Amino acid sequence: MEGHGRGVLRMTPEAMRRLADKATQALIDRLEGLSDSRPWDGDFREVLEDKLGTPPPEHGRSAEDVLEQALRDVLPYAARLDHPRFFGFVPSATTWPGVVAEFVAAGFNINSCTWLVSSGTSQLELVVLDWIRGWIGYPETGGGLLTSGGSAASVEALVTAREAAGHPERPAVYMSDQSHSALKRAALVAGVRRENIRLVPSDDAFRIDLARLRQCIADDRATGLQPVAVCANAGSPGTGAIDPLVPLADLCAREGIWLHVDAAYGGFALVTSEGKDLLAGIERADSVGIDAHKWFFQPYETGALMVKDVAHLEDAFAIGHDVLQDTVWGTNHPNFADRGLQLSRAPRALKMWMSVQTFGMAGFRAAVQEGLDLARRAEAHIEASPVLELMTPVSLGIVCFRVNPGDGHDERSLDEVNRNVLAEVFWDELAFFSSTSLKGVFSLRMCIENHTTTWDDVRKTLDLVERLGRAALAGK
Ligand SMILES: *Cc1c(COP(=O)(O)O)cnc(C)c1O
Predict the structure, then answer these.
(1) Atom of ligand 1 nearest to the CA of 293
(2) Mean predicted lDDT score pLDDT of the chain
(3) What Å distances lie between residue 299 and 100, 184, 192, CA to CA?
(4) Which protein residue's CA is at the shortest distance from atom 10 of ligand 1?
(5) Would you state the pLDDT for residue 42?
(6) How far apart are CA 186 and CA 264, in angstroms?
(7) Which of 19, 213, 404, 421 would be 389's cystine partner, CB 3.0–4.6 Å?
(8) For position 6, what pLDDT does the model report?
(9) For a substitution probing ligand 1, which of 265, 293, 434 has the most ligand atoms within 8 Å of its CB?
(10) Residue 371 to residues 289, 398, 454, 470: CA-CA distances in angstroms?
């Protein structure tokens, strides 16, 4: 099509602008209409395959037509994780400067692998990591890297822990029965046999049971296993529970075991003084995984692994390579590829930097605080409701509750009522949330950490659950 003679894959400046303008307009329309749209859409494979399952065309067509098709047949079929009434799993709402940063970064096509190849964004990554270091409270030795998310951060943390422990033959890793599946997968990747991934029971508050952990470590040492890491939750994916970080740090220091804190969804509460208090002790962890694509309002994929002594990361991951021999710039000029899994890396720091520069930390702090406050208001609303029951104290934006008027329904019928209510909420399309199992008990679960969510959104959603709950109970 356009641009023959300058390379068939090029476009004229006018065509480029037309396409980008169309994309911009579509994104703005989407964001402006989000609150009035459904929080979820999706379809079955045969339906989508009908729309999309063609072989690659030999000849192209208008780029605007292609974009139009993507906007019609692909992109709408998704959970709208940034919808103000999307409360399922972990929501994620972006800011416009962060989105534009992604576009610009793709256009500049920067590979943030080494200082030689990308000094600007490498410097920016150092800057952003230093911000996170400050929020955690790590000393000057602290540092890390931006990752695709919490899963990659967990793998890199556990490999680093294993290497710091001297890569023992029979490693064991410890976490609570509430920990995220990503940590279990990370332990496997780090070479821990399935049976040596210890899921320590949690207490009534869904925090790891310290006495059981201590016993488990002692038993394992007695049989020749080598504990390499304890993983703590801050907060846990189910209830937002925060494991006792200070006692865990004491235990790990005494035992000489690496302490990793999984703060993937909850960690950015640290930018508020309330969150700082709640997460006190996190600065004693050897490493922390924290996702900016959750409570720091960045587009996917933006996570971080922070290590108290960043030297451990390079000890674990730096491997010389002849074809990269020119990229050794020297002391204090890190090659981020030497700190983790990826060689080719997106310049993830740009979106964080641009959005923080635009709104300031006052804006980000207020937005995170709003999530904490809305969750607490939801808690009070549930406690005052004759139909709803709070299942766990609200923690780091997570609200676990269910329909239970407390008039003698047995657990089986409550289970059924709440499953039905969840399905009805789904089909109602006002809001989206998900459920979890709290030690076998079915619980509704809302995660509130979207900077566009208002109390009206939360209240309308809880009102809907009450209404559907009453109807379901009446039908019993
Ligand atoms: C989301 C999450 C993960 C996994 O992180 P990804 O960014 O999805 O890879 C791990 N732990 C917790 C607590 C999480 O919320």
Answers:
(1) 7
(2) 96
(3) 10, 25, 32
(4) 150
(5) 96
(6) 14
(7) 404
(8) 54
(9) 265
(10) 20, 9, 9, 28
